[in-house]
Amino acid sequence: FGTLLRQYGRIALAPASRPVLLAISVEGFLFFGALAYFGAYLRSAFALDYIRIGLVLGCFGLGGLGYSLFARRVVGRLGEAGMLRLGGVLLGFCLCALPLLPVWQAAVPVMLATGLGLYMIHNTLQTRATQMAPDARGSAVALFTFFFFIVQAVGVAALGLAVDNLGYAAVFIGAGIGLCVLFLVIAGRGKQGT
Questions:
Q1: What 8-state DSSP symbol labels residue 52?
Q2: What is the pLDDT of residue 14?
Q3: Which residues of the chain, if any, have pLDDT below 50?
Q4: Could you please report the per-residue DSSP string of 54-94?
Q5: 24 closest CA partner among 155, 135, 160, 169
Q6: Per-residue 3-state assignment (H helix, E strand, C coil) for 132-166
Q7: CA proximity to 130, closest of 117, 145, 148, 151
Q8: Does the CA dihedral 98-103-104-109 come out positive or negative?
Q9: What pLDDT, on the 0 to 100 scale, is given for residue 194?
Q10: What are the pLDDT digits (tens) for 85-130?
Q11: What is the pLDDT, as a whole number, of residue 190?
C-alpha cells in the first residue's frame, strides 16, 4: 500500500501531471457541477414535464456521439490546442446562453453543442493523462479518474448551494466563463504547459 501511495504521489507531483490534474478537476467541478442542475433549471424556467426534460438533456449525449463520429477529422484539422479552444468556447457560450433562452426548444441545439464541446475537451485531457507518466500509464489514468470523480461530487454539492443562494443564471454563467477562460489559457500554453 505504501508503494502504491508513493507511486500516485510521484505522478501527482510531476510537472507534466499537475496541469492535467488541475484542468480535469476544474472541468469536473464547474461543468459536471452545473450539469446536475440543467434538468431542474428546465423544469423551473419552462415548467416542462420530465419526458421533455429527458429528451432535451439526451441531446447532450447526441452531441458527444456527433463528436465521436467525426473525431478523426476534427482532431486532424484542429489539433489538441484547437480542440481545447473550440471546446472551451462552445462550453462557455452554451452555459452562458442556457439561462437566457426565450423558449425551451432553444435548449435542444444548446445541449447538442454542449455535448460536442465537452467531448472535444474531455477526450483531449484523457489523451494527455495517458502521457503524464509513460512508465506508469495505468496509474496515471487511475489518478486522473480519481480526481475527476471526486471533484465532480464536490462540484455538484457546492454548485447546489450556489444555485440556492445565487440562482441558476449566476451559476451557469460563472461556470461557462470559468471553463472558457481555463481552456483558452491551456490551449495557449501548448501541450507541454497544459
A1: H
A2: 85
A3: 192-194
A4: HHHHHHHHHHHHHHHHHHHHHHHHHHHHHHHHHHHHHHHHH
A5: 155
A6: CCHHHHHHHHHHHHHHHHHHHHHHHHHHHHHHHHH
A7: 145
A8: negative
A9: 43
A10: 999 999 999 999 999 999 999 999 999 999 999 999 999 999 899 8
A11: 62
Check if the beta carbon of residue 23 is closer than 8 Å to that of residue 124.
Answer: no
Question: Looking at beta carbons, which pairs linking 53-56 to residues 24 or more positions away fall under 8 Å?
Answer: 56/104, 56/107, 56/108, 56/111
Residue for grid cell 440556492: 164
Instruction: Collect all residues with Cβ–Cβ distance below 8 Å to 117 and sequence separation of at least 6.
Output: 63, 86, 87, 88, 89, 90, 91, 94
Q: Determine the pLDDT at residue 191.
A: 53
Query: What is the distance between the alpha carbons of residues 184 and 160, in angstroms, rounded to a whole number?
Result: 26
Residues 119, 39: Cα–Cα separation, whole Å: 20
pLDDT of 65 reads 94
Amino acid at 148: F
What was the pLDDT predicted at 72? 87
Task: Please identify which residue in the block is written with the cell numbers 452531441.
Answer: 63
Residue 128 makes CB contacts below 8 A (sequence gap 6+) with 20, 80, 191, 194
Task: Give the amino acid at 147.
Answer: F
Lookup: cell for 65: 456521439
Nearest to 94 by CA among 153, 152, 149, 31: 31
Taking the whole predicted model, whether its pTM rises above 0.85 is answered as yes
